[in-house]
Every structure is written in C-alpha cells, then in structure tokens.
Input
Amino acid sequence: MRATPWPRVTKSGRLQVALGEFELIRRYFARPVVSRQDVSLGIGDDCALLLVPAGYELAASIDTLVAGVHFAPGVRPRDLGYKVLAVNLSDLAAMGAEPAWATLALTLPGADEEWLAEFAAGLFQLAERHGVQLVGGDTTRGPLSVTVQIHGFVPAGQALRRSGARAGDRVYVSGELGAAALALRRRQAAADDCAAAIIARLDRPQPRILEGRALRGIATAAIDVSDGLAADLGHILEASGLGATIHLEDLPMCQAVAAQVATDGDWSLPLGGGEDYELCFTVPPDREAELLETWRRFDCGCRCIGICEDMPGLRYALGADGLYVTAEPGYQHFADPA
Ligand code: ADP
Ligand code: MG
Output
C-alpha cells in the first residue's frame, strides 16, 4: 500500500541510505531460513499459497505486542523478535498443534537497520528451531507494534480445547510459575539483583510445543499461561462449566519466586503473574500414569496442582489451615482500573 517514504535517519541519529519498504522486506524478512515443502508460494506475491495436509485441521492464532503496553520502548529488538513468535507458538502448543507458517505485520517509526537486523535475528532463531517458515506480512510506518499470525496443523478432531475438562480431572501445569512476573517486577524497579535465569523466563519463554503435542489423547483441556494461572485456568473452568480447588503448596516455583512469596506472604506471583507461557491442562485420573511416563522425555517438569470439581469457582487450599482467599483476575486490557 502507498504511504510516506521511510526516513533517512536512524533512532540514534545516524544518517543512512534510504531503505524502501520492498528492500527492507527483501533484506530482512524474505530469507530462506526455513523452506517448507507445503509452501507453494511464500513472500513476494499478493498472497502466500499454502498446503494443509489431508486429515488435518489448520490451527491459526494471532498476537500483537505494542510498545508501551507489552514491552518497554527500549526493549532489545532481538528479544522482541524472539518473543512475538514465542507467544504465538505457545498458543499452538496449548492446542496440541504443530507449527508450520507465520506472517508478520510490522509497524515501525522508522527503518533503523540495526534494529531490523536484530529483530529478524531473534525471530528467525526461534522460527528455525520450530521449523516455521515466514510466508508473508505487512510493513507500515507508525508507532512501534509487532504482530505475528501463526499457522499450524492438528489431526482433525484431536485439538486440545478449553472446554473438555470434567469433574474429577486433575489440574496440571508444566515448568514453573511466577518467574516472568518476578523478572518484570525487578526490571520495573530497576533492581540489578535479578538473576539471568529469571530474566530469561521473561525475555526468552520456551513455547511447550512438544509437550502440547504429547498431550493429545491424554489431556481433556489445555491453555497456555499468558495472563496468570488463576485467569487462564479460569478460562478452562468456565468453558468446561466447572470449578476447581488448587493446592498452593503444590504450585511449582523456582527458588527466587518461592522466596518472594514467603517474604510477601502472598501468592500473587505464581497465581496472577502473566507471561510464563507454561501449559495448564486437565487429565483424568486414569490417564495420569501415562502422562507421567510420556513426560519423562521432556526437560521441564509437570506437576499436579489441584482437581476439577462440579462447584463453580476457583478455591485455594493451603496446608491444614484450609482456604486461602484471594482475587487474582489476571491481566485484562479493557478492565476498569480498581
Ligand atoms: P500488498 O501491497 O500486495 O499487500 P506488500 O507490498 O504489503 O503487498 O508486500 C509485498 C510482499 O512482501 C507480500 O508477499 C507480503 O506478504 C510480504 N511482506 C510484507 N511485509 C512483510 C514482513 N514484514 N515480513 C514478511 N513478509 C512481508
Ligand atoms: Mg500489504
């Protein structure tokens, strides 16, 4: 689409050769990092042409990251490129789908080549790891915002939906909860004592693609934890018409998060902290042995944290003391401020 030409000065004030939209796409995004057999036509025409294998459903999901909302304007572009794809892959993981193709909509205040090279490096690093081909996109000028749409496959009828949980199913989570929120909290406080491992949980989440795939046929429902466990498990419960009791002592947390919970005396990091991109899923009791056997090949853990019940609502049990009461609604873009 026609629009004003790109500026000739980078954010750092460096003068550079004018980089047009098409040259920008060619230089940074039309790269054969991954070439899939099921792509008849990739970047360069009005549409990409893609082949969905017979017997599979196409799983499609889109996520936008906006400067000042989802990331600080000074974020490292390599981290941003990685993360915008990671959050999309996490949605495929939560459906038990295998990733295939991505499209990228970029809105940039200017054509800063250093920024673009770094952004593309982060994006393609993860794309290569998961065999995802970038097949198209859109490039526009405006306030910084990045959108990826991801496409994947799942054998017809086998996707993990939010609505399949039943009373008596065990609630599980992969990995650990709360570290990304702890990293964000420390970063916002400009604390310099945040360990690299904690920062990595925020900047480099690992989409649980293999794990999600393995859950097909075992889990009755699944979701990825992007807005916090309470909010995201809440979606499964609502879609399934159930409630649940969660045992707080069983929440998987790294040492730093557990220490913070002990200091604060509140559980909002593991319950309300977003951006962990772990999987939360439900498993009938008679499939638990199979789950644990299957999970042995993965390097993240999985832990039973509670049970689905007919009574609606989310309840928290803490030791012998009984119920711990909290409201952890998770992050909502259009919710009224308290
Ligand atoms: P049109 O004007 O027909 O929408 P564009 O000029 O926007 O086409 O894009 C030209 C080609 O480059 C298309 O194949 C489009 O999918 C691709 N493209 C544009 N921006 C990007 C991007 N940021 N990443 C990957 N492909 C892109
Ligand atoms: Mg276009």
